[in-house]
Design goal:
A: 420 residues; mainly alpha; 3 domains; 68% helix; flat; B: 366 residues; D-Maltodextrin-Binding Protein, domain 2; 10-stranded mixed sheet; 10 strands; 41% helix; globular
Chain lengths: 420, 366
């Protein structure tokens, strides 16, 4: 009905108005899209793709099949629970694969990969590249086992078979201190040998403590800045931002100088006689050190959102409350404080998420009781080169952050967050 | 997550920068990656400056990224743009890089200069060529230093580190099982030639951890080589392990009341690898031939107290460039210092590092 009515209206150049309008709208939309495109591409390249790549790495395991294709195929028919070694065909395939791998220098690469699952694989494959070249004809099984007795162990072949599929849950299992036995059952590490779960829990607890500390210290500072006249307020803001412009390492190292046993604070305490020279406090290279240094470093992230929210709370509210007979404390608690909750929410979520991923400061001042899961991730990226495990740990951390985010949304409501 | 991203970003930035430079000038620019600080300075003095003086077309640029070199090289390789030409790494990393195919295989006799008496390079370096990709440069050791003014008697054995009754106070140890586990077992009565046999078993690992457990509450764990000298200088620890060159500089250059405890020092090697995919391979090989000859390796010892890797360089080691003291007695390889030594067991740690490290770290958390 409407169509037939609008079809009658035409623009000056004889086009139906509807077509003309649609075209103009489309042009506008394309223009808007073109304006957003650089940002979108930037986010995709710098954020979405790396995260997707990381998530993929945590399950990716193409290397075994790529380097040992014949062995993987031959192992398909072997029953790993039979308690017997694979047959001659598998050994022949392995020797053939190793000869190719030796030429392409990939035997050591697969050895490294499998060494993450079982110690000794690294040297087994490094040596095998050389030794397999000397095996010219059957019986392969006998000769390969002669070259290194580890080839005669069933568990060697079980590990190879277990990690021959292109995708593996192995890294995720390791990230929660579990492993899959060759029989397929999932076994958790004893709690005293577990490391990742312990670190995840510690990271959460310490991040919460740091968030609370920044709130405790940041709230009065922000209040002071927001209620002072602009001249003093601006000066205070600069004082808050000043450490922000100082190198992170410098700030961390100065905490070491302050907090260590022969450091400034202990010296002063001994000098004024609060503690004895033998009873110097241990405030660094432990969890206390991590909390203090990180609270200091993350404090601006709490003060700034708090300040910008407090700035918008009219001082008349408090005056109105007191003039209506409220004592200062109820006036603050019932009138002022609820107005600052959006700022607390924003600051808390900023500080918490930053704290969870921190690793330089805990590395330097955390000792053994103050390190985070991110230190372990950094170790696997930089030292052990076990990027699959690092990716899995990162993914678990990402999930935990998302869970916290959802909880936060449920309890506080994300719409209540305000950065200013 | 964070460091992975920053590694990628660094690689990207470096590649853009390097691309801009090479297209702007026809001269060769070699990016040499090393450890920074006093170590890079010693290489600058002994290798880079003389080479650039003799070859005006070559500029050598230092990049202090060696402690993250393995991860960065892998990232560069995956991105298909290797911007480094020569990388200084410890031998264990060289083996790993070689295993991953990230380092070029070197024909030592073809690439490197023979000794002055004509001995081929492979013989001159001897056993120190621990990987076919590795060109040894120096022998260094991880050993202990102690505060002379904070001990009542002179510690003479590495086992004094475990003796809290005789030497009370804190110790600095590396937050890493390597070396600590060996020392623990040696001091727990394991015969030196059986250390790795014992450590290769789960019971041996627990034995070593139990020994370390006796001093665990008194240990400050370090992760960077510069930490122990600082902790010693501040009086935070009574004794601590670190690289011998670091201790030399805090003792001789900064004149701190610290002395060396050489007992059961652990020798390790540091040297060059040529990354696979370098764009200046010919120029790098030419530089390497110069920088690893007998005289150059001996020259480096003028600046830092690490032993040259060539046998033929040892007699040429002279005096310190600025202090003017004899360097030979400060070398880890000096007979007086090397009565009892261990050599870093590359194969054992390549195989067992992941497992033992995991156990060690979980032990630290207990």
């Amino acid at each position: 009905m409407q169509n037939s009515a609008s079809a009658a209206i035409v623009t000056a150049d004889g086009q139906p108005l509807k077509v003309s309008l649609a075209r103009a709208l489309r042009r506008q939309r394309m223009f808007a899209l073109a304006l957003v495109a650089p940002l979108f591409i930037f986010v995709a390249i710098s954020f979405i793709i790396p995260i997707a790549d990381m998530l993929f790495r945590s399950v990716e395991n193409g290397i075994v099949e790529e380097i040992l294709p014949q062995t993987v195929k031959a192992l398909e028919s072997w029953d790993e629970t039979s308690g017997e070694l694979p047959d001659e065909a598998v050994f022949a395939a392995m020797v053939a694969d190793l000869k190719v791998a030796r030429k392409e220098r990939t035997n050591t690469k697969v050895g490294q990969r499998l060494n993450y699952e079982r110690s000794g694989m690294s040297s087994l494959f490094r040596g095998a590249g050389r030794k397999a070249g000397r095996i010219k004809e059957a019986p392969y099984k006998e000769q390969l086992i002669k070259s290194d007795k580890d080839w005669g162990k069933i568990v060697t072949w079980q590990v190879i078979k277990q990690f021959s599929p292109n995708l593996t849950p192995g890294y995720y299992l390791a990230s929660v201190d579990a492993m899959q036995t060759p029989e397929g059952e999932i076994r958790f590490e004893d709690s005293e040998k577990a490391i990742h779960t312990k670190l995840f829990i510690r990271t959460m607890i310490m991040s919460v403590v740091i968030t609370l500390m920044t709130l405790l210290l940041g709230f009065p500072i922000a209040y002071l800045i927001a209620t002072q006249p602009a001249k003093i307020g601006n000066l205070l803001i600069i004082l808050v931002l000043l450490p922000f412009w100082t190198s992170l390492l410098v700030r961390t190292t100065s905490w070491i100088a302050l907090l260590q046993q022969q450091g400034v604070i202990n010296d002063i305490l001994v000098f004024i006689g609060i503690i004895s020279d033998d009873g110097r406090l241990t405030m660094i290279h432990n969890a206390t050190g991590s909390v203090i240094a990180m609270t200091h470093i993350l404090l601006p992230f709490m003060v700034l959102p708090l300040y910008s929210v407090m700035k918008t709370v009219p001082p008349t509210y408090m005056r109105a409350a007191t003039s209506l007979g409220a004592h200062p404390w109820p006036a603050f608690w019932k009138v002022y404080f609820p107005n600052t909750v959006p700022g607390i929410g924003a600051g808390a979520i900023l500080v918490f998420i930053l704290a969870i991923g921190y690793y330089i400061t805990p590395e330097l001042v955390g000792g053994t009781s103050g390190t985070f899961i991110s230190n372990r991730i950094a170790f696997h990226i930089q030292n052990s080169l076990n990027w699959g495990l690092a990716a899995a740990l990162g993914a678990v951390l990402l999930v935990i952050v998302l869970v916290f985010y959802l909880l936060y949304d449920k309890i506080v409501g994300i719409d209540n967050m305000k950065l200013g | 997550m964070k460091s992975f991203k920053s590694a990628l970003i660094a690689a990207a930035v470096a590649s853009v920068a390097a691309g801009a430079v090479t297209s702007a000038q026809a001269d060769t620019e070699l990016v040499v990656v090393s450890w920074g600080g006093a170590y890079s300075a010693s290489q600058q003095g002994a290798y880079h400056d003389p080479y650039m003086a003799a070859n005006s077309g070559v500029t050598i640029v230092n990049d202090d990224s060696s402690n993250a070199a393995v991860a960065k090289l892998r990232a560069m390789n995956e991105a298909g743009n290797v911007t480094w030409d020569l990388v200084d790494v410890v031998a264990a990393d060289a083996i790993r890089l070689c295993d991953e195919g990230l380092a070029e295989i070197i024909d030592h006799d073809k690439v490197l200069a023979p000794a002055p008496d004509g001995t081929p390079a492979s013989e001159d370096f001897g056993d120190l060529i621990v990987s076919e990709c590795f060109i040894p440069q120096i022998v260094y050791s991880t050993t202990f230093g102690y505060r002379t003014d904070m001990v009542s008697s002179t510690p003479t054995s590495v086992c004094d580190v475990f003796d809290l009754a005789k030497f009370p106070g804190k110790r600095a140890l590396e937050k890493n099982p390597i070396n600590n586990m060996e020392w623990a077992l040696l001091c727990d009565g394991v015969a030196p030639d059986q250390v790795y046999e014992v450590l290769g078993t789960p019971a041996g690992v627990e034995k070593a951890l139990a020994k370390l457990g006796t001093i665990k509450d008194n240990v400050v764990w370090w992760t960077k080589g510069a930490q122990t000298p600082q902790l010693l200088a501040d009086g935070e620890v009574v004794m601590g392990s670190t690289y011998n060159g670091r201790l030399f500089s805090v003792i001789e250059e900064e004149k701190q009341p610290i002395a060396m405890l050489w007992d059961w020092q652990v020798f390790d090697l540091d040297g060059w690898i040529v990354p696979t995919g370098t764009k200046n391979k010919a120029a790098v090989m030419e530089y390497l031939r110069f920088a690893t000859d007998t005289q150059r390796l001996a020259d480096q010892a003028k600046f830092i107290s690490y032993g040259p890797a060539r046998k033929s360089s040892a007699p040429l080691v002279g005096k310190h460039a600025t202090l003017g003291i004899d360097m030979a007695p400060h070398m880890p390889t000096d007979p007086a210092n090397s009565k009892t030594t261990l050599l870093y067991n590359y194969e054992f740690w390549a195989d067992n590092r992941d497992d033992i490290d995991e156990r060690f770290q979980s032990w630290l958390l207990q």
